[in-house]
Amino acid sequence: MAEPKGLLIIERILRDRDGVWRQIADDHRLKSLSGQMLGASALALACYGAVLGASNGWLQALSSAVKLPLLFLVTMLICLPTLYLFNLVFGARLSIRQALALVSTAITVIAMLSLAFAPISLFFLITAPHYNFYKVLNVTILALTGLVGLRFLIGGMRSLNRFTQAQALAAPPAAPTPAAETEPATTDESAEQPEHSYYTRPQPTARSANIGLLYVWVIVFGFVGTQMAWTLRPFLGSPEEPFEIFRTIEGNFYVDVVKTIGRLLGAG
């Protein structure tokens, strides 16, 4: 069966995720797979970015349609070397192509979920055009889709570990040496049993280390992404300020979100 292209790649990810993880584990046609996922993600994020910017005119919509895909692309490029080096340090066999495909899968899920929320965001923009509410709503949507996408990434890493372990167990064992065949059975069993136990016990520890470092990387990805979003703002555009492509870097993303919630609740 031919692989789906364009936006249909999300259907394959959701319906045949094990097949996607196995393709990544086998390092098979990952350039094509990553290209499809990044292309679909850019288009979906551009559509959602246009909805974000529509709250402040067509110029802001056009600007946000360009900046939102750029946000995820730059964040991925900044954090991808860290993921690759983490895997090398902890002894994983993840190539740079596999790391790129793995992260691209998570970004595709985030992009498509964001696109699915676009009609809801647009509905509230039309029926309840309140700037602070609209900002909190879309920050919540992006945070929710980001969590789902990153959980998808962790699930993918677990699947890659499972496939790698299965391939290692399926590998043919080394042929015994002639000297070992001539030894008595009691001596051979007593010598081989500790060796078998020695070589199989470290595997769960290695898998746990891989997942543990992935959790650390997810936190790093989140912080880099939020700071990058703050750097590339505005995405919505305040109705009280003129249109700007970028604003002066000042303040903090988290402080601004708290202040926005306070203003929305009438506390500030």
Description:
The chain has 268 residues and is mostly helical. The protein has one domain (6-168, 199-264). Helix content is 78%, strand content 0%. It contains ten helices and no strands. It has helices at 9-15, 17-25, 30-53, 58-89, 96-127, 131-170, 178-182, 185-200, 202-232, 253-264. Helix 2 packs across helix 6 (131-170), helix 3 packs antiparallel against helix 4 (58-89) and helix 6 (131-170) crosses helix 10. It is elongated, with a radius of gyration of 24 Å. Residues 194-205 have low confidence and may be disordered. Residues 173-187 have a biased composition (Low complexity). It comes from Stackebrandtia nassauensis (strain DSM 44728 / CIP 108903 / NRRL B-16338 / NBRC 102104 / LLR-40K-21). This is Actin-binding WH2 domain-containing protein. Keywords: Membrane, Transmembrane, Transmembrane helix. The chain crosses the membrane at residues 38-58, 70-90, 102-127, 133-154, 211-230.
- How many structural domains can be distinguished in the coordinates? 1
Quick check: average pLDDT? 82
The number of E-state strands comes to 0
Task: Sketch the major β-sheet.
Answer: none
Helical segment tally?
10
Q: Which term fits the overall shape? A: elongated
